[in-house]
């Protein structure tokens, strides 16, 4: 494992890099150091002309990512104003760092909560058949704002509403995610990275200017709505979240049962 919790493999021949969240013992939960590292990594890729497409995934097979590491979350001081929030995950995605090279997410196992900052800024998703998607925020007294806004750009309204409001009680299977358009391809378990790399290699072989221009055009189509919605997220979070100690109490009392559909 890389000391930063992120490992990177670059294939200069195909022009594809694979970025792996590499904390499988913590279900690839993101630390503050990892959040900073992801931002720096995406910005750095802008200058690597021989890397033309990127795959992002999680190590270990049990999870793509389970959001921010709760041990680190409590270390982030928050302003007193109800209209602002310091969110350590707000800039962990490629688009937030002005990277317009295509990014494909390869999902195995759980993808939940803060994972949606990354999934929401990928061009498309490939998932192993045992992948599941869910958002536990409401269960623990937290507003799902940033996560929901990101995923509302790629899921039907009713589906993202159900996922966000059901909290930890329900998970979306890879099959259902494919049916609603969240996932573009479902592979056998363990096959998501290989399928994503294959697609990335095809894309990387196309003329770079045309690819990046197409990515930028795609995001321009929804950028205004997305930006306006994200601007409302901070005060929705600060006004609606329970105090941290109450959140921790609910988290400690969480039940293991859930329904997968």
Task: Please explain how this structure is put together.
The protein has helices at 32-45, 70-73, 115-119, 146-152, 157-166, 174-179, 192-204, 208-240, 244-252, and strands spanning 6-11, 16-21, 53-58, 63-65, 103-107, 110-112, 124-128, 132-134, 170-173, 185-187, 259-260. The protein is α/β, with parallel strands linked by helices and 261 residues long. It has one domain (6-193, 202-208): Alpha-Beta Complex (2-enoyl-CoA Hydratase, Chain A, domain 1), CATH 3.90.226.10. A six-stranded mixed sheet has the order 1-2-3-5-7-10, sandwiched between helices. The longest helix is centred in the C-terminal third of the chain and has 33 residues, at 208-240. The chain is globular and about 50 Å long. The model has no long low-confidence stretch (mean pLDDT 91). InterPro entries: ClpP/crotonase-like_dom_sf, Enoyl-CoA_hydra/iso. It comes from Streptomyces omiyaensis. Belongs to the enoyl-CoA hydratase/isomerase family.
Mean pLDDT: 91
Please report which band the strand proportion falls in: under 5%, 5-15%, 15-25%, 25-35%, 35-45% or over 45%. Answer: 15-25%
Output the CATH homologous superfamily: 2-enoyl-CoA Hydratase, Chain A, domain 1
CATH class bucket: Alpha Beta
Poorly predicted runs: none
Can you tell me the overall shape?
A: globular
| Count of DSSP H/I helices | 9
Structural class by SSE content = alpha/beta
Percentage of residues assigned to helices: 25-40%
Task: Give the termini distance in whole angstroms.
Answer: 33 Å
CATH topology (fold) name: 2-enoyl-CoA Hydratase, Chain A, domain 1
How big is the Rg?
A: 18 Å
